[in-house]
Automatic annotation (TrEMBL):
Record keywords, A-Z: Heme, Iron, Metal-binding, Monooxygenase, Oxidoreductase
Entry protein name: Cytochrome P450
InterPro entries documented for this protein: Cyt_P450, Cyt_P450_E_grp-IV, Cyt_P450_sf, Cytochrome_P450_monoxygenase
Record's compositionally biased regions (Low complexity): 25-44
Biased composition range(s): Polar residues: 13-24
Pathway entry: Secondary metabolite biosynthesis
Location of region: Disordered: 13-44
SUPFAM superfamilies in the record: Cytochrome P450
């Protein structure tokens, strides 16, 4: 049967397609058979006819004349997207709409669909864009009773905006100031501030699971931080716990002191070379070193990559369904280079072993009663150490020095308390009992309270729902306590914005009236908290005993504070220039 192609170009409707320059050009391009869609997103660059040159079936000719252009090419791209989105959808609830909108928007954007389909899609999109917000605001929505701003109830993009700015910690505080103890901060998210909510959400035996905000990695294997299944989590947690036993912590003490001395040498050297040193640059690096997975000069810049990883993964907390898609785009997926660096760190650790009995050594010990870590899980656990341990510790130590420098009266108090702890050579036999020094302990706790900018630890309400602070919360709702907003709540921590270690002291003893949430609560709480506290205490004690810190003239502490951004930990926009010199301990 003969086939005749006519160009449907609006300017030249009756010209045979074979004579239309556009069509000729199209036909000269390599065709992509519809039955063989490319295996990756690279197919998105396959050239296609513009809609005004779409070849159509010619009435009477009786054969399909659509070849490489129009719907076929387009369908193969779209179905590729569909397959991908569908795979995502099957991993969790609530992604179908996002997927459909994504596909529709993409298809319209490409513009190569017949007009009717195009208008139908526009109509559908329009309907979705109107119906979804109306539904989310309506009494039909299951979180209708939750107080909060309308825009937050309609879209997750509101919190995404503050995440991009790095100001969610402040925004959440402001929302609770305005709306009270419970706020609907997203279409499906409730934020609570109260000790009873903390114990329901994190502390109870049936505490809800981690939300999709924790699905932010691509490495194979199981890592403690990312494990959600409670049984697998507690098996892995038993392995990790061995690294933080009393015996293990005691064994880390000498290497820790060496790491701190190395840091002090660096601070002194930089000061004598440049007259000052930026603590924002140096302290995170020290924390990564102290996790002993890195070369001390960090040639791969792993510390900076870690911060980038944290920054981006926080944004994806609010658009999690897009995480796996966007990660396929080359520019964006670059941030995953942190994962590659984690693999390298793990490989290096496996190849070179450790210079002392470090935390990882404990994971590979085991007997018939003790589970061991399989080496294939080391890369993802290395990532967990670097993210969970190094980045958090880096920002907390930076905060600690900021509070020290801006509250010099506490330096004097601390020195007085530490008078008998160090000998004349500056050594101490009491480093493992520094927690017995009330002011030191109070200083560290106060740093963690005011300096942990965490916006929250989101969890998902299980089937059957749960009661939080007297409210029945339906299953599938994301519930969260915004850690920093809680830490600066005047009902629990009076005069909350003031840095005041005295709030942790009663009758000259260290005393906890209200627990902070700096290390989380419940079964997923920080497994490394004892190590972190040990490091902070030793670093603080040695620093005030051995060094003098003089801020750069004109240092603006408010500007520094306002330049702090919340990632999952904290990011500092302003430098913290100080002059570090030796101190004569007898002064
Ligand atoms: C000042 C320093 C630190 C802070 C503020 C901190 C904070 C936290 C918080 C809030 C959580 C709970 C996360 C959640 O509930 O979702 C957590 C979990 C965790 N942290 Fe830390 N952390 C610190 C240091 C460390 C260190 C030194 C390590 C290890 C070397 C570590 C390893 C972990 C791991 C593995 C988890 C996941 C625990 C689990 O799911 O069972 N952290 N951390």
């Amino acid at each position: 049967m003969s086939r005749r192609l006519l160009c449907l170009c609006s300017q030249r409707p009756s010209v045979p397609a074979s004579q239309c320059p556009s069509v000729i050009q199209q036909q000269q391009r390599p065709s992509v058979p519809a039955s063989q869609p490319s295996a990756s997103f690279s197919s998105l660059s396959v050239p296609a006819c513009r809609s005004d040159h779409v070849d159509r079936r010619v009435p009477g000719d009786g054969d399909v004349a659509i070849r490489e252009c129009g719907m076929w090419t387009r369908l193969s791209d779209t179905s590729l997207l569909l397959v991908h989105y569908d795979a995502l959808r099957r991993r969790g609830k609530g992604r179908l709409t996002v997927s459909f909108i994504g596909i529709s928007a993409f298809t319209i954007w490409r513009g190569d669909v017949p007009e009717t389909v195009k208008y139908l899609l526009i109509l559908f999109l329009g309907a979705v864009l109107i119906a979804v917000p109306l539904y989310r605001l309506s009494p039909l929505h299951r979180l209708h009773g939750g107080p909060g701003p309308k825009l937050n109830k309609i879209t997750e993009l509101t919190m995404l905006y503050y995440a991009v700015l790095g100001l969610r910690h402040n925004k959440l505080r402001a929302l609770h100031d305005r709306y009270g103890r419970v706020v609907r901060i997203g279409p499906n998210t409730l934020s609570f501030i109260s000790p009873t909510a903390i114990s329901s959400i994190y502390g109870s035996a049936n505490a809800p699971d981690k939300s999709t905000a924790y699905d932010m990695q691509h490495l194979k294997g199981d890592g403690l931080f990312f494990l959600k299944d409670k049984a697998s989590h507690s098996r892995r947690r038993r392995i990790w716990n061995r690294s933080f036993s009393e015996e293990a912590l005691l064994g880390y003490q000498d290497p820790l002191v060496r790491e701190i001395e190395h840091l002090f040498d660096l601070l002194l050297k930089k000061t004598s070379n440049n007259g000052k040193v930026d603590l924002v640059k140096i302290l995170p690096q020290y924390s990564y070193d102290s996790m002993s997975l890195l070369d001390s000069d960090d040639p791969a810049n792993i510390a900076a990559e870690g911060t980038k990883f944290f920054r981006l993964s926080e944004l994806f907390t609010h658009i999690q369904p897009l995480f796996h898609c966007l990660m396929l785009i080359p520019g964006i997926s670059r941030f995953m280079s942190f994962e590659k660096l984690s693999i390298l760190a793990a490989e290096r650790r496996l190849k070179n072993g450790a210079t002392f009995r470090d935390g990882i050594s404990y994971w590979f010990d085991g007997d018939e009663f003790q589970p061991k870590l399989h080496p294939r899980d080391l890369p993802i656990e290395a990532e967990t150490i670097l993210l969970g341990g190094a980045d958090t510790l880096g920002s907390t130590t930076t905060m600690m020095f900021y509070f020290l420098i801006t509250n010099p009266k506490w330096i004097t108090v601390l020195r007085e308390e530490l008078r008998d702890v160090f000998d004349e050579q500056g050594r101490s036999q009491q480093l493992n009992s520094l927690d017995q020094i009330p002011i030191l302990e109070a200083f560290v706790q106060e740093t963690l309270r005011l300096g942990t900018l965490l916006p929250g630890l989101p969890r998902v309400v299980p089937n059957g729902g749960m009661i939080i602070d007297g409210h029945h919360i339906p299953s599938g709702t994301v519930v969260n306590v915004p850690v920093w907003a809680y830490h600066v709540d005047p009902d629990y921590f009076p005069n909350p914005r003031a840095f005041d270690p005295n709030r942790w002291i009663e009758n000259e003893n260290f005393s906890i009236k209200v627990h902070s949430m700096a290390f989380g609560v419940g079964m997923y709480n920080c497994v490394g908290s004892k190590l972190a506290l040990t490091q902070l205490r030793i670093l603080l004690a040695m620093a005030v005993h051995r060094l003098e810190f003089t801020p750069e003239p004109g240092f603006d502490s408010e500007k520094f504070w306002n330049g702090m951004r919340n990632t999952r930990t904290a990011d500092f926009m302003e430098p913290l220039w100080v002059r570090v010199t030796h101190r004569n301990p007898s002064d």
